[in-house]
Every structure is written in structure tokens, then in C-alpha cells.
Amino acid sequence: MLILLLPIVLGCIWQDDTGYTYDLTKLDKPGGWQIKDDQSGMGMFSMVYIFNFCDFHAIKCHDKQVAAMEALAVMGQITENCDVAGQVDSKKVTHIDQNDLQQGILISYGLGDLCMDAKQQPAGVMQPRQAQFYIECGPDEKDFRVTPNGECVDQFRIKSQIGCRKKQGYLWKQLKALIGFWD
Q1: Where are the alpha helices (DSSP H) in the chain?
Q2: Cβ distance 90 to 67 under 8 Å?
Q3: Kind and range of the H or E element at 158?
Q4: Could you give the strand order of the β-sheet that contains 92-95, starting from the edge strand earlier in sequence?
Q5: What's the confidence (pLDDT) of residue 183?
Q6: 63: alpha, beta or left, given left = phi > 0 and alpha = psi -120 to 50?
Q7: Number of neighbours of residue 81 by Cβ within 10 angstroms
Q8: What is the spatial distance between Cα 86 and Cα 110, in angstroms, rounded to a whole number?
Q9: What's the pLDDT tens digit per position in 80-133?
């Protein structure tokens, strides 16, 4: 029997096309991550990014459940003024570098609110916002870092064991059990 392995995202477990698995549930935080953009400080105003990877119930922008958003905080309090950076159903998971799979994984969300990046060509064209999360294989860090990448792409980086390759994880074992392979 020939089995073709394809990248699979099942809930919050991602299996790449070589059989390695990544458990994204370990990236989740109750209520979602809240990362202040230190570069956007305007006195008593600041921008806060709110996102999660599996449980999106607490993350709402314009009364719509989303995967990632940018919100205005006034004197430390998050307001209802927000922009959607990524929709839940647009999740894509890939490797950061297809030529070096040890680097980690990239989780992307798209279909956010329309925005315009003056540096983007052609100028004046509206495009949907995106949120990109680089989960680099390494010793666990506490928080994501905001890495600027234009007006319409919000990028975040963190080092975490979650980005490291683990052979024959959960999905591989389930597939073997389903089709009757032995260990």
C-alpha cells in the first residue's frame, strides 16, 4: 500500500510532509497573547497585538471572532478600536525555510482588514492585512517580539521548542493505528 504524506493541519497539531509533528496547543494562552508594540508608543496611547493559535473565543474585533488583531490601548486599557490582522479560517503552517527544516515553523493568518502600505508597489492599492508568527527552534522564550514588516503585514518571532522537529508524533501514530501498522 502506498501512502502519500501531505502537510496536515488537524485542529492544533500540524504534520509536515515528512511526518514530523508540531503541537500548536502549547503556544496557546488563556484569553490570548497580548503584545504591546513598543515602537508605536504615543504617550498615553499604544498599539497592542492580540492573538492565539487554537482557542480564539476571547479574541474579537468588530464583534467577529478572529485569530489576530491590532487594538488601540489608552492609558493601558484596550479599547474597541481595532483592525483585524488575520482570520481564524485562513491559517497556514509551513517551515520558515524549506531548505533548512530545523529552523522552525511559520504560522500565517490572512484575510484581515484592508490596508494600504505606501512602500508597496503599485502605490495606492489596498490589500488585506496578514499576521505571521515565526516559531524558531530554540530554548523557550517568554514573549513574542514584534518585527516590523510594512503597514499590512504584522510579524512576530519567538524561540520555542514547539518549532523543533519531532519525528513520528501524534498524527503518524494515529495513521499507523488506523491502517493496522505495528510498532
Answers
A1: 170-179
A2: yes
A3: strand 153-160
A4: 92-95, 104-109, 130-137, 153-160, 145-148
A5: 43
A6: left
A7: 12
A8: 5
A9: 999 999 999 999 999 999 999 999 999 999 999 998 877 766 667 888 999 999
